[in-house]
Specification:
By secondary structure, the chain is mainly beta. It is built from three helices and 35 strands. The radius of gyration is 27 Å and the shape is globular.
């Protein structure tokens, strides 16, 4: 978000489900939602650490004590896509209700393993569908009131995701003009990821005459098993076996006013504890030295001989304790919001196999300022200032012989945003122009330095960057049946002028004023929707729409230790056509109608796992054309 976090060492935006941070499970499907909140720019005041560029929050639909209903959604499509989801809401006595949501989806994906012949003439028998996916989730919720003042909302959710790990496509060239874009991933060992999450959230609310006290408690446990073919080849060379467990416990209390007075306030405290257990093992084979050193042709017995080397056995813990306060004042056409969050954090890491550890703490001040002036019911302008940060962390090693891990300082961001919103023609057209400026300091980045005898490969704070840009959004009800929406953003992300780094051979290099990797200068979409009652069947509407998406070219990740490559721009066209009524809908959906071939991310690297190493390009190939049919029925 705002050019922060795209393929970097930190996530640019935080992901939340009803306030519960989503660390390892943001890829899972969330259905039966009330709405999705997207906040751009640093959001440290609202959520604390981990929101350098913005935040995305999924708000679930709550049980409804007023009506009994159920719905079912069925979807089939190309790639043997099959999905089913259902929601059931049941009112029970005394303003209480329960709600259940269940979902299952599976598809074969679009990447294939051809099981090519290896050096010794043998072939693997891997499943042909490399990125086949199976995703299931279940959520059970209850809500109600006790008396006139006390209310409860609580749910338990479970999800299971099975998909490919890092299914990178290899291009045997450095020239993007010669790319083949073949959806082929040939591995000796199929990469896969299994992730299970169990989480619960409970909201307790007590209302008084002028204030409201809210308690939000949550817990989540995510277990992940991941297998990666590190050399990305059909030969048996190196694999990773990764196992993670994430536990996060959080508790928040806040008290806020609920009157119609021109001034409002909110105070609160927040505590969270996140634990992570990682067990990563590197697998090599009897065939590895023969291929790497070119000493002979590996036999089938060589390929079955496996050596296991613990490479990252880590225990991590992060604690955060915060207090925050916010005040809002309305005066005539002005609204002023002032907030401050003080957040203390502690980060601990233990390298189990080397028995070295690190323990660091810090306090972060996160202010929030917003001033809004309303000119009329149709126009307003605002100016805001926010900050964000990512708590410091450790590299899981130390090459100096010390008994503590190498520390990485906290990343920090500070952003100004100026926006103007105007509605026209009785609200049929709404436009918004936003200008932003973000200072990103202590930016961490993967880094390699050759300085014998202590070669360094890890993560470091490499410098500061400045992100500036503009975003224009509009929503227009052009006619009774046609509507248009669009959002276009321009971004300039540059290293500061004094930015100095050392290359892979430890030679000084100035990158000041150069573009930060992985920051497209332009991106956006334009969407056209149509809705009209059918002349023949008046009980249903004809619905149709098309959306054009664009993303400009950008330079890949890697500063000097990897050869940079320019990921080409791409354009996608999506669309839908169908019928909708009060209780049902039947819609044909299409992604990438123009069947554009593209990489969502791309980088060049040295192929170190060949008898004749050379530079290759690797990346995640984008979704080709995909057509699905959706049927939804409400009872």
């Amino acid at each position: 978000m705002r050019g922060i976090g795209l393929f970097d060492s930190v996530v640019g935006g935080g992901f939340y489900l009803d306030g519960l941070p989503l660390f390892g499970d943001a890829a899972s499907y969330f259905g039966d939602l009330q709405h999705i909140e997207v906040l751009k720019g640093p959001q440290g005041f609202l959520y604390g650490g981990g929101n350098l560029g913005g935040s995305i929050q999924f708000i679930t639909a709550r049980p409804d004590a007023e009506q009994h209903f159920a719905n079912i959604r069925l979807q089939v499509g190309q790639q043997d896509w099959q999905s089913i989801s259902t929601t059931l809401n049941i009112p029970i006595a005394n303003d209480w209700a329960v709600r259940a949501f269940a979902y299952h989806q599976q598809d074969d994906g679009y990447l294939k393993d051809e099981n090519p012949q290896r050096i010794n003439g043998l072939r693997a028998n891997n499943p042909p569908d490399v990125d086949a996916t199976e995703d299931s989730s279940l959520r059970l919720a209850i809500a109600g009131t006790v008396g006139n003042r006390f209310s409860v909302y609580s749910y338990l959710c479970w999800s299971d995701l099975q998909t490919a790990g890092h299914a990178w496509v290899r291009e045997q060239t450095q020239d993007v003009k010669q790319f083949q874009y073949k959806p082929v991933v040939n591995h000796s060992s199929p990469s896969h990821l299994n992730r299970d999450t169990l989480a619960s959230t409970t909201e307790l609310k007590m209302s008084f005459s002028k204030v409201e006290l809210l308690s939000l408690s949550s817990f989540a446990r995510t277990k992940t098993q991941q297998r990666e073919d590190f050399d990305m080849r059909e030969e048996f060379l190196f694999d990773y076996d990764k196992r993670f467990q994430h536990d996060i416990l959080s508790q928040e209390l806040h008290l806020k006013t609920t009157t119609d007075a021109p001034w409002q306030w909110l105070v609160g405290i927040h505590y969270s504890q996140a634990k992570e257990r990682e067990r990563t093992t590197t697998l090599s084979y009897g065939s590895t030295p023969k291929i790497m050193l070119n000493t002979g042709t590996p036999t089938a017995d060589d390929e079955q001989l496996v050596f296991r080397d613990p490479s990252a056995y880590l225990n991590k813990e992060t604690k955060r304790l915060a207090a925050f306060i916010k005040a809002s004042v309305d005066w005539r056409a002005w609204q002023v919001d002032l907030g401050l969050r003080l957040e203390g954090w502690n980060r601990f890491m233990l390298n189990v196999q080397d028995n070295i550890s690190g323990d660091e703490s810090g306090v972060q001040r996160l202010p929030y300022v917003s001033v809004t002036h309303t000119f009329s019911d149709a126009a307003k302008v605002y100016l805001s200032y926010t900050e964000g940060y990512e708590p410091g962390d450790f590299n899981p090693f130390n090459l100096t012989g010390d008994d503590s891990l190498w520390w990485i300082d906290a990343d920090r961001s500070a952003g100004f945003e100026l926006g103007y919103q105007q509605s026209w023609w009785a609200g049929r057209l709404v436009t918004q122009l936003t200008l932003f400026h973000t200072d990103y300091r202590n930016r961490r980045f993967p880094w390699t330095r050759r300085s014998p005898p202590n070669d360094f490969e890890g993560t470091v704070n490499i410098g500061n960057s400045v992100h500036q840009g503009a975003e224009l959004a509009l929503s227009w009800q052009a006619t009774q049946h046609w509507s248009i929406s669009a959002d276009v953003g321009a971004l300039s992300a540059k290293w500061r002028k004094d930015f100095l780094i050392h290359d892979i051979l430890n030679n000084p290099q100035y990158l000041g004023s150069k573009t930060v990797p992985n920051t497209p200068k332009l991106s956006g979409y334009v969407r056209l929707d149509y809705r009209r009652p059918l002349a023949v069947f008046s009980f249903a509407d004809l619905v149709a729409g098309v959306q054009y998406n664009y993303r400009a070219a950008f330079w890949s990740k890697g500063l000097l230790q990897e050869r940079e490559i320019k990921n080409p721009s791409y354009q996608l066209v999506d669309g839908y056509l169908g019928l909708e009524a009060d209780k049902w809908q039947l819609v044909l959906q299409a992604e990438n109608i123009n069947n554009e071939v593209y990489f969502t991310d791309l980088e060049q690297t040295v192929n170190n796992f060949d008898r004749n190493p050379f530079f290759i390009s690797i990346g995640k190939l984008g979704q080709p054309r995909l057509i699905k049919l959706l049927l939804s029925v409400e009872f």
